[in-house]
Design brief:
The structure holds three protein chains of three kinds. By secondary structure, chain B is mainly α. Helices cover 75% and strands 0% of the residues of chain B. Chain B folds into two domains: 86 residues, Up-down Bundle (Four Helix Bundle (Hemerythrin (Met), subunit A)), CATH 1.20.120; 44 residues. Classes of the chains: A mainly alpha, B mainly alpha, C mainly alpha.
């Protein structure tokens, strides 16, 4: 008996929401990046759930692409964080708000 | 309740609890990263329950085993301490963001699944490395090659960004 | 639930043999083998009432000492992470035993006995996944100790371990292409046969002129089909285990003890034991992948059962075959452990940038070239057969 699709999607939506809350509320750049990873994981779970429900491995292929993009984004994002830290001695996102209104 | 369902609900709950622990943890960034690892491993177990074996293995190998290690590496390198939540005047905006995010999740949950038919019978090797490999190298070979170019661009970008200037 | 009992028995067997029996004995082997290699006697003072058993009581003495020592957590250290780190380092290593088969599949009438705890379709990927979790043990240990040398050791360890994981996976891809599977039991079955050494000359018409040489066969073991992969994988998996000569994270002469500097008592014991358990896991994995697993060279399972059945009957023949196969597996594991000890006490420790250069500039291109050449050879063989 398969897991009902609603429950899988519910879990995915919950993880995505928690990730969004983290990305919006926290001030530490690294925790914001980790919350974005959590959002990507929520999306991956949705892909896997639908792939299982519709008997199509295309969902898994897309999950592989999301993992690749996440790895690339983490590498570049953390490179930016390191460069930022060298200039400003802080990873607080409010210290890099020069272009904000 | 069958054994796979028990694993799904148990590890799904573990994923949600450790995700909350990661987001709400202000004191210790390293503990937040470890909570993210627990979330990812729980999600890998959920993927195995959903017959996505190769994706589960790659989730642990790449996500939990490499990406979060890079996070930890940067945290330890920069020797970061704690940070705090938002200041008072911004709390309203961020609170509105929280409500919006949860509302969107609730709406997605209610609107989408009821109208979709689902399949109960899947082939025995669904989600195995053989099935995914066949799809990856026959139908999706172009996205596969382009993703390797993407990774090359990311590697070069990360090296350039993190390099010390030689002046 | 009735399917759970054989799994529990097999788990108990492999943990009792692999973890509880092998690991302490290996600490003794390490001391005695290094002593023999360095022309000295080694540790032989531990005794019970004056009876020293060649120093075999030293592991017992070690365990008693570690259990009774005081657990010191440094001030300013994160207590929760300090406690978790040895567990994160040791649990994945013990969990790796779950997919390594120490025997084949035997049919006793109705029941089928499969001597592996979990016959995963993606068995080798499971081991790589678990090995990447073990990285966290060293990373967290260094950070949670609130000590500069520990932090340095764990930074070195994390970079070394994630670099060598990449090459570890790539060097085995040629083996997957040869055996067409990732399942460790199927790999063992594939290594149960033999191949003719000069069979490829058939397509050029040379077979008759060679005479008896054309019937020369070798067991189709991984090490004979993929010798370069054997060397690369052994190097990578020893670097993954932070075993000398790759033990810079614990560089004893430079950063005192590196990431487990601030650990005492049984927490240090867990780190210490997990390194030796991983030596056994590496031995078992190399055996399953490259040395034919549980198989006996030139004597396939059908040969043994077919040979013994006329004398004793099918049931006894299968049981005898099972015992022979398990013994053969553990003999090969012991050979691989001996090899790792030899390498440890022979080679000096390279510098850290030399370790990283070795991974990214030497072993990664070599493993990619191995994949290319293996693919070409397989295509040629398939093309010649058609």
């Amino acid at each position: 008996m398969a897991i009902p699709l609603e429950h899988v999607i519910g879990l995915s939506a919950l993880l995505f929401a928690i990730g969004t809350v983290g990305a919006l509320t926290r001030r530490n750049l690294i925790v914001i990046l980790m919350s974005i990873e959590l959002m990507l994981n929520g999306a991956n779970l949705a892909f896997v759930g639908f792939a299982r429900a519709w008997n199509s491995v295309d969902g898994h292929i897309f999950v592989l692409m999301v993992i690749v993009v996440a790895a690339a984004e983490v590498a570049v994002g953390l490179g930016i964080v390191i460069a930022l830290f060298r200039n400003r001695e802080s990873v607080n996102v409010e210290d890099v708000s020069l272009l904000r209104w | 309740m069958s054994a796979p369902a028990v694993f799904f609900y148990a590890f799904g709950a573990a994923a949600v609890i450790s995700a909350l622990a990661m987001v709400l943890n202000v004191r210790n960034t390293v503990a937040a990263a470890m909570s993210l690892v627990v979330t990812m491993i729980s999600l890998a177990v959920v993927y195995v329950v959903l017959d996505a074996h190769l994706v589960a293995a790659l989730q642990i190998m790449v996500y939990a085993g490499a990406i979060v290690v890079v996070f930890l590496f940067v945290v330890m390198l920069l020797n970061l301490r704690h940070d705090a939540f938002a200041q008072r005047r911004e709390r309203l905006v961020k609170g509105a963001g929280v409500v919006l995010a949860l509302g969107a999740a609730f709406a997605f949950l209610n609107l989408v699944p009821k109208s979709l038919p689902t399949v109960q019978q899947i082939p025995a090797d669904f989600g195995s490395y053989a099935a995914v490999g066949r799809a990856l190298y026959r139908d999706f070979v172009l996205p596969f090659e382009i993703s390797s170019l993407l990774l090359l661009a990311a590697i070069v970008g990360a090296v350039v960004l993190a390099k010390r200037r030689l002046s | 639930m009735e399917a759970l009992l054989p799994v529990l028995i097999k788990t108990l067997f492999i943990i009792l043999v692999g973890v509880a029996a092998f690991a302490p004995v290996i600490t003794w082997v390490e001391r005695k083998q290094s002593a023999v290699m360095q022309d000295r006697i080694g540790a032989n003072r531990a005794d019970i009432a004056g009876i020293t058993v060649l120093g075999l009581l030293h592991p017992v003495a070690d365990v008693i000492k570690l259990l009774t020592k005081e657990d010191v957590v440094p001030t300013g250290a994160n207590r929760a992470l300090h406690l978790m780190a040895p567990l994160i380092a040791s649990i994945p290593v013990i969990a790796s035993f779950g997919v390594i088969p120490y025997g084949g599949t035997y049919h006793f009438g109705d029941t089928t006995v499969n001597l592996v705890v979990a016959d995963l379709d993606w068995g080798v990927l499971y081991i790589f996944a678990i090995a990447s979790i073990a990285t966290y043990g060293t990373v967290i240990a260094g950070w949670a100790s609130n000590n500069n040398w520990s932090l340095l050791g764990s930074l070195r360890a994390s970079a070394q371990m994630i670099s060598y994981e990449v090459t570890m996976g790539l060097s085995i891809v040629g083996l997957f292409m040869c055996f067409q599977t990732l399942r460790l039991t199927d790999m063992g079955v594939a290594q149960d046969s033999t191949f003719r050494v000069f069979g490829f000359l058939e397509h050029f018409g040379f077979v008759e002129s060679l005479g008896w040489l054309s019937h020369l066969t070798l067991p189709s073991w991984g090490i004979l089909l993929q010798p370069l992969a054997f060397v690369l994988f052994l190097t990578c998996v020893m670097a993954e285990n932070k075993r000398p000569p790759f033990d810079l994270p614990e560089g004893e002469s430079e950063i005192i003890a590196g990431y487990f500097l601030e650990y005492s008592g049984m927490r240090f014991g867990l780190f210490y034991m997990s390194e030796f358990i991983e030596v056994v896991v590496i031995g078992a994995l190399m055996t399953a992948l490259f040395l034919g697993g549980w198989t006996i060279p030139w004597l396939s399972q059908a040969d043994i059962i077919g040979g013994v059945t006329p004398i004793f009957g099918v049931g006894v023949a299968t049981g005898l075959c099972m015992v022979l196969h398990v013994v053969a597996f553990f003999v090969k594991v012991i050979i691989m452990i001996w090899l790792q000890m030899q390498i440890r006490w022979t080679l000096p420790r390279p510098r850290y940038d030399q370790v990283m250069d070795l991974c990214w500039k030497v072993m990664l291109p070599l493993s990619l070239a191995n994949i290319l050449v293996t693919g070409l050879v397989i295509l040629l063989i398939q093309g010649a057969k058609a």
